[in-house]
Amino acid sequence: MLETPRPDTLRSDARDNRERILAVARTAFGADGLGVPMREIARRAEVGPATLYRRFPTKEALVIEAFAEQMALCTSIVEDGLSDPDPWHGFCTVVERVCELHAGNQGFTAAFMAAFPHAIDFTTTREQTLRAVGELARRAKAAGHLRSDFVISDLLLVLQANSGVRAESPADALLAARRFAALQIQGFRASPGAPPLPPPARLPLLPVG
Amino acid sequence: MLETPRPDTLRSDARDNRERILAVARTAFGADGLGVPMREIARRAEVGPATLYRRFPTKEALVIEAFAEQMALCTSIVEDGLSDPDPWHGFCTVVERVCELHAGNQGFTAAFMAAFPHAIDFTTTREQTLRAVGELARRAKAAGHLRSDFVISDLLLVLQANSGVRAESPADALLAARRFAALQIQGFRASPGAPPLPPPARLPLLPVG
DNA sequence: ACGGTAGTGGAACACCCCGTCCGGTTAGCT
DNA sequence: AGCTAACCGGACGGGGTGTTCCACTACCGT
């Protein structure tokens, strides 16, 4: 656990390295999940392990920084959905885009669902985003298009489920995510004759595996 | 990689140990996935690592033997569905029961989807089962209840997705699986106004992770 | 009862991972 | 040009996992 100076006070080459590390981490974690070793990240970034650890004192820190912008993207997706005049259309767009986002970022779902001990902002952002989704769902229900027994944790359910889908290429992953999202939307749609859903379960924030 | 004599020619104590190991493996892999270490299996079975490896030359072998009966159960679930006079009802039951089965056996999905190099029967059983599902789906489509753009790999998609769902207790896992299955069925149901699904993706048989 | 052999448990091997530290080197800044 | 921050690469410790070695044990037929 070394010192970590503010990124903007770094020497230019150090700054470059930092950016390269983050880029590599995003690609690697996104493609192969959080299991990618730190040394592998360092190797691909053409950097020594020590450099990596000087910039990011722990793997957790690297993961959080690497996915910070995905997290922001996630939030903005939901905000876009909220600002859609048609709440059901907004809701569908959120489901689609979130599934696609997670499809291209295998590790992100794990990070998103994980209970990182040292990432307060990550956690709070997630909570806020979920609250926004709740508001969107409320409107979509009021409009009569979202089934009335939908609950927020259903979206977590779908997210977790989507993360279980593995494809053999990024292109296939995207296809699978799109098809999956479409199926979920169909399942969420309010339809008169449909039977009610079984009761929801409590979904945990799991430790990083 | 040691010799592995036929189970029925074993000495009595060895036979006992073998059974205990299998029982422990089923519970452990079922509850916590294939990540459970061999040592842990041995410890819980009150057996040394060597004993474990004398009976099952590799972890893969243990996994296959442990889930052999789940595999058979899987097959019989599909056959039950096929023999249902109402193909759509049969189809729904298959989805529900398979999701529940996989919910209680975390590791099984991984094993089911995995491309085990040395498990010919496992693979062939899976293929046969999938073919049976295909026949069931054909009938359910003909009856007009299953959406016509359903393809077999959609079931694999749902299976993979279901395996991504994690709960904090077996009871919650079952609840989550039931709710998830209900959502999927709703998505699979043929409904006149529904838009067609995006194209399916090729899903791989992944190596054991 | 007894001896041979299958069976056993614990230590050990080989490998991988995270995180750390250090000697010698490079590259930015002034 | 020189000072210094930053870097590289390798080695190390601690922990984990799949698998094997070996001396000992306990079963079972005679």
Automatic annotation (TrEMBL), chains A, B:
It holds the Pfam family TetR_C_43. The keyword Manganese does not apply. Residues 15-74 form the HTH tetR-type domain. The keyword Heme does not apply. Residues 37-56 bind DNA. Keywords: DNA-binding, Transcription, Transcription regulation. This is TetR family transcriptional regulator. It comes from Actinoplanes palleronii.
